[in-house]
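Exercise 7b. Backbone tokens:
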């Protein structure tokens, strides 16, 4: 009789290329992982792995079996996730926006102990280097079940649904010792200044350029960096301006660690909300969406 659990363990070991990492992921001991692999090798009468200086690697037979087994294991995992009593929800969210939702998500998890929210944040996994389009691609492929992010129009509206939750306001901030404080800053002033912006193509950067009615190359002294790096630079340099969402830095503003600039122009707010795959709606996901909308 085929022991499907052996194949699941085998595929994880093959992916990790390391018994220790595989045992941590499986939450079982290293000797147990080794024993399961040995049992599968005995059942197949084949050697599946070779040891190397860096860990282990598949043999040629092991590679062939892995190629055939991985899709079957993924299908079985999908069935378990879809119909099992305990449910996983895979969430994509930018690390800065996660701060706005952490209490809500924790509260939801405490109420629904059978639901586990697996968080992929774009700063801590380089998924902080994948942008929203990368997360949306994962949503289309059902690698993610839900995304919390600012609104964009760059997605397949036939497959993906955006549900508005609220609006977020971007502002310009400076060091508390900046000579710009107390002045009305105009568009012409901004063009020549040293300014830190989020990633090129981000909703915040695009919205800012639209408000200024200028092309990106006009900002000759612009740097594109993460929010955390931006705050560090601004604290150390009173000549630098930063563009950031106000809701992300309420604590810093309230503690007067940095200050908001006054501008002659208006930066319009940006909608933020939830993206879901229209084909991948299930009861627990609907519960989470409803909970977020009611509690935000």
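Sequence design result:
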């Amino acid at each position: 009789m085929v022991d499907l659990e052996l194949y699941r363990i085998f595929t994880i070991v093959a992916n990790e290329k390391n018994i220790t990492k595989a045992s941590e992921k499986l939450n079982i001991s290293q000797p147990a992982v080794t024993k399961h692999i040995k049992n599968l090798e005995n059942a197949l009468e084949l050697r599946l792995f070779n040891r190397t200086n860096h860990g282990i690697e598949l043999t040629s037979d092991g590679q062939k079996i892995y190629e055939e087994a991985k899709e079957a294991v993924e299908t079985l995992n999908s069935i378990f996730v879809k119909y099992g009593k305990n449910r996983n929800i895979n969430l994509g969210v930018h690390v800065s926006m996660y701060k706005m939702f952490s209490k809500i998500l924790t509260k939801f998890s405490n109420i629904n102990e059978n639901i586990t929210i697996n968080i992929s944040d774009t700063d801590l996994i380089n998924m902080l280097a994948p942008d929203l389009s990368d997360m949306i691609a994962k949503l289309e492929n059902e690698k993610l079940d839900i995304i919390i992010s600012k609104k964009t129009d760059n997605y397949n509206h036939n497959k993906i649904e955006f549900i508005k939750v609220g609006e977020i306001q971007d502002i310009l901030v400076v060091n508390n010792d900046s000579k710009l404080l107390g002045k009305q800053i105009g568009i012409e002033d901004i063009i020549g200044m040293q300014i830190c912006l989020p990633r090129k193509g981000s909703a915040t950067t695009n919205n800012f350029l639209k408000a200024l009615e200028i092309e990106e190359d006009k900002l000759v002294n612009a740097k594109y960096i993460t929010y955390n790096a931006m705050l560090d630079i601004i604290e150390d340099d009173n000549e630098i301006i930063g563009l950031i969402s106000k809701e992300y830095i309420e604590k810093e503003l309230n503690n007067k660690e940095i200050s908001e600039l006054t501008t002659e122009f208006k930066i319009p707010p940006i909608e933020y909300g939830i993206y879901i795959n229209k084909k991948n709606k299930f009861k627990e996901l609907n519960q989470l969406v409803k909970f977020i909308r009611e509690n935000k």
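Instructor comment: The chain has three domains: 4-83, 87-167+271-295, 170-268. The CA atoms of residues 235 and 291 lie 37 Å apart.
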